[in-house]
Amino acid sequence: MTEEEFAQRVEDMQRDGFAILPDVLTQAECDEAQAGLDRLVPERGRGGTECLFNKAQIFERLYQVPDFLRFIRHFLGPDALLSSMHGSIFRPGEGGRALHADGAITGHNRDASMAPADANTRITSHVIALNTITCISEFTAVNGATELVPGSHLHPTLDRPPDADERAAIAVAARGSTIVFNANTWHGPTENRSDAPRYAILNPWRRHWTRCEYEVARIVDPEVLARAGEEGRKIFGLDAQPPYVEMWQWNRDRGEPKEEWGHLRRD
Hints:
Elements: H1 3-16, E1 18-21, H2 27-40, H3 57-60, H4 66-76, E2 81-82, E3 86-90, E4 129-135, E5 146-148, H5 164-167, E6 169-170, E7 178-182, E8 187-189, E9 198-202, E10 205-206, H6 216-219, H7 222-235, E11 250-251, E12 256-257
Antiparallel strand pairs: 1-7, 2-10, 3-9, 4-7, 4-9, 4-10, 5-6, 5-8, 11-12
């Protein structure tokens, strides 16, 4: 991505609340990811398509693409955290309109956590969380692609924007591209009216100081973490882990007790 292309997508995010990054995965990588999702589908009821970074090396690619990672960090900071990674497959006839904003369970749009002083307003001055959808299939107007409401990331309250249905636009996107959107942006799936499944990988990101969907630092396989190198320690948030021993016994960079207190480590 050129500097001009990067700047244009930053502008798209700021104006619309979403942007489409091209060529995050190659066609061959999409083929491999699709095969991986198909292999995991029989175990979907037992989390087979969740925490995909532990399921096959092709899924590790989704936090290794430099332009993609730079874009995430432009909005969430250099220590942005991977919150989860899961697969999405819509068979023909599945999906349907269900506009919503994210962050209602563990994020800043959690209704139960709104204080009286908040006056039903949400944080719109800064990006607190981003969600990403990598298109393992081409996203078309008829195959269950995501629709988004432009500008709805600036809607001040938790209430649904009154004109959301009329303004919602389907994110038509090439195979291998990634749709990045502000968690405040109202969005939802559409019905797959085609004759083929629609494949995608959802990969949310959070600020370092917020709560993620999973404690990925405790979930990630050691081999996966080792392959990610020093970047992986930031992406999986090892230094975001709260101490479970006293501070003087804690190695914050590694997210575990210091070596001499290793017998207190929780595996």
